[in-house]
Amino acid sequence: MKQLILILPAFNEAEVLADVLAQLKTALKRLPVDTELVVVNDGSRDETAAIAAKAGATVLTHLINRGLGAALGTGLAYAKKAQADFTITFDSDGQHDPADIAKVLRPLLKAQADVVIGSRSLPGSGKMPLLRRINNLAFNVLTWIFFGKTTSDSLSGFRGFNRRAIKYIHLKTERMEVSNEFFAEIKRHRLRLEEVPIKVIYTPYSMRKGVKPGNIFAIIFRLVLRLLR
Amino acid sequence: MINNFLPVQIVFGAFLLFAVSRVLLRLKDGALSLKNFIFWAGLFVVALIGVIQPELTTFVAQELGINRGSDVVVYASILLLFYLIFRTNILLENLRHDLTELVRKLALKK
């Protein structure tokens, strides 16, 4: 049976992680693949690592906080080492619906795509708050300007990759700008991209997380640095 | 000859000579690559020429369409500072990246 590794980057997520992992374990049982839950504990100072281990997840611990991009890079490196057939990145703050994993996995299983983005902006995705929609649009334009790739959701943390994508994607950025960098890698390696609509669960907790409009200038600066490094 | 210099020229000149000597020392002890040595030594020597022969900066200024030689020095300094800050940022990014690689290796080892 094919193997799927689910990567959850986590930084101080003790408040919600146990629930998220419990829901995920139930959802993963329904999938036609072998699964492994991997929590990349990115230097958390709370009980994140202990909660993840208790839930039976593989815990990869960054001794110090290195940022979202670094955590995803570690997860992908683990998937590559484990020779996983597929990997899916999933936010650990509870904003993603575990039932959508099957949707993201489907095009990969059918070999229709190398990378699948779970988009919050496609018909059937549900309603995104206005400020988030504007923010997302600005970052989509930024992704197009920098990397020449169009997408309906450049900030989505719900992504699926097949073995080819796991092998070729090499991330250089270490923080939030990684979401945009994925598209640079997709373009550079000519990976087949597909987007599927996903549902987002907005809670006061999940609304506090993610890329804010004020981050755009820092992200642009770091993307410029990435291009010139 | 030194009597012909203004005090500001003597102070700036002495500082730049000191800077050139430091760059030479750093090359000697291997802390500076040849490429970096050429950049820094070249920069300080050009600045030294400008201090000793200020009329040269006026010539450059007129060629560039700027009124005064001292303005050229200020503009060039600002541009240079921008460039150096940018280089420092790239260096910092590279260091951060190396740190992440180390942290990742440790995370995957366990």
Q: How would you explain this protein's 3D organization?
A:
In chain A, strand 2, helix 2 (48-54) and strand 3 form a beta-alpha-beta unit. In chain A, helix 1 runs parallel beside helix 2. The termini of chain A are far apart. Chain A has helices spanning 14-29, 48-54, 68-81, 101-109, 130-147, 163-168, 178-188, 204-208, 216-228; strands at 3-10, 34-42, 58-62, 86-89, 115-119, 159-162, 193-197. Chain A is 43% helix and 17% strand. Chain A is an alpha/beta fold. In chain B, 10% of the residues are buried. Chain B contains four helices and no strands. With 110 residues, chain B is mostly helical. Chain B is elongated and about 70 Å long. Chain B has helices at residues 7-28, 34-52, 54-64, 69-109. At the A-B interface, strand 3, helix 3 and helix 9 of A face helix 4 of B.
CATH topology group of chain A: Spore Coat Polysaccharide Biosynthesis Protein SpsA, Chain A
Biggest sheet of chain A, in brief?
Answer: 7 strands, mixed
Domain unit count of chain B: 1
* Percent range of helical residues of chain B: over 70%
Counting DSSP H or I runs of 4 or more residues, the number of helices of chain A is: 9
Q: How much beta of chain B, percentage-wise?
A: under 5%
Overall CATH architecture of chain A: Alpha-Beta Complex
Helix fraction bin of chain A:
40-55%
Q: Could you state the CATH homologous superfamily of chain A?
A: Spore Coat Polysaccharide Biosynthesis Protein SpsA, Chain A
Rounded to the nearest angstrom, the distance between the terminal CA atoms of chain B is: 70 Å
Span between termini of chain A:
41 Å
The most extensive interface, with participating residues per chain, is: A-B, 21 and 14 residues
Low-confidence stretches of chain A: none
Low-confidence stretches of chain B: none
Chain oligomer state: heterodimer
How many β-strand runs of chain A?
Answer: 7
* DSSP strand count of chain B: 0
Order of strands across the biggest sheet of chain A?
A: 3-2-1-4-6-5-7
Radius of gyration of chain A over all CA atoms, rounded: 16 Å
Which CATH class of chain A applies here? Alpha Beta
Largest pleated sheet of chain B: none
